[in-house]
Amino acid sequence: MGVVKIKDKTFRTSIPESEIRERVKAVAERINHDMADKNPIFLAVLNGAFIFAADLLREITIPCQISFVKLASYEGTTTTGKVTEVIGINENLAGRTVIIIEDIVDTGLTMKRMIETLGTRNPESIHICSLLVKPEKLQVDLNIEYAAMEIPNEFIVGYGLDYDQEGRGLRDIYTIVDNNTDMKNIVIFGAPGSGKGTQSDKMIEKYGFEHISTGDVLRNEIKNGTELGKTAKQFIDQGQLIPDELMIDILASVYDSFGKEHKGVIFDGFPRTIPQAEALKKMLAERGHSVAAMIELDVPEDELMKRLILRGQQSGRSDDNEETIKKRLGVYHSQTAPLIEWYEKEGIRNHIDGLGDLDRIFGDICDVIDNI
């Protein structure tokens, strides 16, 4: 389940259940090691931590006890700034090792209040175990010894966390989608030599769009030695095509690096096939986004040949020779051109005459973008 709707908000998968369970197990192993002779008492904070507490306790192998306390500090998606103890603690904590189990620590105000309250009961020591921590949001100095994961300052739901008391039962953790209505993601489409790079530069300059060129992205990932880049290089070194799933993972990583407030992204060189277009659509949908327009630069084949041969002469590109160009155009017509009909059915295809004055072509493109 990539996207869920809860009341008036849309959320996308942020942390899958499999990763959550791995992190919970790792935290439990640390507690088992550190508290082997302490017989700690766990205090789980309701309501959010009940699932985390249950999974954590199943991984705890040392003698221990568990109890519960309920504090309230959230309304909707924002903290109220007021911490209210709803259910008190009945156990005798004097001389005990106390481990607080919390679902998330953001400002830290709730946790500080709880530690102050517990301190009046004379425990031997107090420790914090939190599934999630938002370092950017912390307003107080806390020693969070057992943190399963650190996350950005975003509102999340699932795995015990709620939005207005709903969504706690979701197995994954979801991040709220900030629907930026001004965002205009563009697929620039056309055969080799149609002018995609030139027109992309103009769009970037005028509209402030981000740009994803698959060739550049792959080279950067490989150059920087990222895990995705290493995997891609293995396929390339073996003379194999990079699988669509890997390419989408790479593009998603770059896309997410632009943050939530970008004005739009130009996808240049991707998708090349209908399965890739479907995968791109799914990837964006998981983020609450979409392709706003496919802009097709239509240039006659004889003109494409002239442009590419000239480019080869000027740049020295070895792949810009007549024989190679014919092969590339053949691949385009057989594999990529069918996307024109696919995007037509999506209702976002925009045909642009790519032959003629560059400024006139760009003006036509701007008319499309301005009317999205």
What do these coordinates show?
The chain has 372 residues and is an alpha/beta fold. Helix content is 40%, strand content 25%. The strands form 3 sheets. It has a 6-stranded mixed beta sheet with strand order 5-4-3-6-7-8, with helices on both faces. Strand 1 and strand 2 form a beta hairpin. Helix 1 crosses helix 2 and helix 5 packs across helix 6. It is elongated. The protein starts with a strand and ends with a helix.
What coarse outline follows from CA principal-axis ratios? elongated
The biggest sheet amounts to:
6 strands, mixed
Helix and strand element order = EEHEHEEEHEEEEEHEHHHEHEHHHEH
Percentage of residues in helical conformation = 40-55%
Strand order of the largest sheet: 5-4-3-6-7-8
Throw out a few tags for this protein.
single chain, 372 residues, alpha/beta, six-stranded mixed β-sheet, five-stranded parallel β-sheet, 12 helices, 40% helix
Write the layout of secondary structure elements.
Layout: E1 3-6, E2 9-15, H1 17-34, E3 41-46, H2 50-59, E4 65-75, E5 78-87, E6 97-105, H3 109-119, E7 125-133, E8 146-150, E9 156-157, E10 173-176, E11 185-189, H4 196-207, E12 210-213, H5 214-223, H6 227-237, H7 244-257, E13 265-268, H8 274-285, E14 291-298, H9 301-315, H10 322-336, H11 339-346, E15 349-353, H12 358-370
Parallel strand pairs: 3-4, 3-6, 6-7, 7-8, 11-13, 11-14, 12-13, 14-15
Antiparallel strand pairs: 1-2, 2-10, 4-5, 9-10
Helix pairs in contact: 1-2, 5-6, 5-7, 6-7, 7-8, 9-10
